[in-house]
Design goal:
This protein is α/β, with parallel strands linked by helices and about 425 residues long. Helices cover about 35% and strands about 20% of the residues. Strands 3, 4, 7, 8, 9, 10 and 11 form a 7-stranded mixed beta sheet that branches. The protein has a 3-stranded mixed beta sheet with strand order 15-14-16. Helix 12 packs across helix 14. The relative contact order is 0.11.
Length: about 425
């Protein structure tokens, strides 16, 4: 009975204390008011094709997004697309390139706004500038260097010296060692993973979600690329597992993780062509830039039928267009000889090809691609283009050009 009386007394005292307690006053006394509300969630939108593929609207601002997967699976392409959209929104892209596969020309072709700076004497492009910040391995040699750089940029923003929302873009987090690995001349995965956890998991990564709070003027976002590996099955009947190069710090701290490819392989293959005795990796150039003017497509001298030796080249074009259903092309062509060369009797008695005759040959190329690879006809435009004549002259002066046939072509990515 005594125990029950003690419990009743304790409950009565607790109830009395609670009735006189003001939680709001306590929060105010401890400085715990005014730091709860978050900003309305905003996004850096994806293109419609990426939205359809991933079923998310874009990169969430104020969060960490990780794009991981094997090599050449599209991670950097998504990073560049995100940077382009950020520029359009007035968000400053901050490129951190520690895997030296970056190509400003490719980024510009995709739509990144930048200015090429030429050498005043040679005209060679020596630098680029624009609405972005760029750093690479020339100034960042370790994981700690990257963390220090990001911290410094965020401090400059906090001081009012960088008045923009920021989008940090790191390509890639698993491509750089920690200071201990460098000092010991031993690229130790455990040391690197530990440095990532210490520098980012416990420090830098926490700064991005904090920028979502209402009391922060700017919202900062982190887009990270990470290569993956494969851990073999540990027991009979179990499955191999995807691993994150450089450890799991970024993986655990990311709000959105986009995985490119499969667990055990990238899920993609390079498209190559056997051409003139050499196996040439061709897909990247075609997807990025189109093809230079060449003489790789030839025709029967008496008909408009494509010669068999040109089939492998055209099959490669068809495979690439099947691989990327968003890619449209324009096929231009012209006679290898100029009208002046024909008039000077340098053509061995050949009659100049008319525009109509050239157009028929170009249309036969289009028909081949449409029929064999089920490419929609409206994805291919053909035209007789006088602008390629200067390129044709360069082709003729090369060793390859010494054996040219009647027509030269170029395929432009639209």
């Amino acid at each position: 009975m005594a125990r029950k009386r003690d419990e009743s007394l304790a409950e009565a005292v607790s109830a009395e204390l609670k009735s006189n307690f003001n939680l709001d006053k306590f929060k105010d006394k401890k400085g715990l008011t005014g730091n709860v509300k978050f900003k309305t969630q905003k996004w850096i939108p994806f293109s419609q094709a990426v939205k359809n593929a991933l079923s998310i609207p874009g990169i969430p601002m104020g969060h960490i997004t990780l794009a991981r997967g094997g090599s050449d699976t599209g991670k950097t392409t998504l990073l560049i697309e995100t940077a382009i959209t950020a520029q359009e929104m007035g968000i400053l892209p901050v490129f951190i390139i520690t895997e030296q596969k970056w190509d400003f020309r490719h980024a510009k072709q995709m739509g990144l706004q930048l200015e090429e700076i030429p050498d005043t004497e040679t005209g060679e492009i020596v630098d680029h500038k624009g609405f972005f910040i760029y750093v690479d391995r020339s100034s960042l040699s370790s994981i700690e260097d990257v963390a220090g750089f990001i911290a410094d940029i965020l401090d400059e923003q906090k001081r009012g010296n960088l008045p923009y929302d920021l989008l940090f873009l790191w390509d890639s987090s698993g491509s750089i060692p920690c200071k201990m690995s460098i000092d010991q001349n031993n690229n130790n995965p455990m040391w690197n993973a530990g440095a990532m956890a210490t520098q980012f998991g416990n420090f830098i990564n926490q700064k991005f979600p904090l920028s979502r709070k209402e009391n922060y003027i700017y919202t900062n976002t982190f887009f990270v690329i990470n290569k993956t590996g494969v851990q073999p099955a540990l027991t009979f009947g179990s499955q191999p597992r995807m691993t994150n190069k450089g450890g799991n710090a970024m993986y655990w701290d990311s709000t959105v993780v986009v995985t490119f490819g499969n667990v055990t392989n990238s899920g993609t293959s390079k498209i190559s062509v056997q051409h003139k005795g050499k196996k040439v990796e061709f897909a990247k150039q075609m997807l990025d830039n189109g093809t230079p003017v060449n003489n790789d497509i030839s025709f029967n001298a008496k008909t408009n039928q494509i010669n068999p030796e040109s089939v492998s080249y055209l099959d490669t074009i068809g495979q690439i267009m099947s691989y990327d259903p968003t890619m449209n092309v324009q096929i231009n062509g012209n006679d290898i000889m100029t009208p002046a060369e024909h008039s000077n009797n340098n053509t061995g008695g050949q009659i100049p090809l008319s525009e109509a005759e050239i157009k028929i040959k170009l249309e036969s190329i289009k028909t081949y691609l449409v029929d064999k690879f089920n490419v929609q006809a409206d994805r291919i435009v053909t035209g007789v283009n006088d602008k390629i004549q200067s390129k044709i002259q360069q082709l003729k002066q090369s060793k390859v050009g010494q054996m040219v046939s009647r027509i030269a072509t170029e395929i432009i990515k639209l």
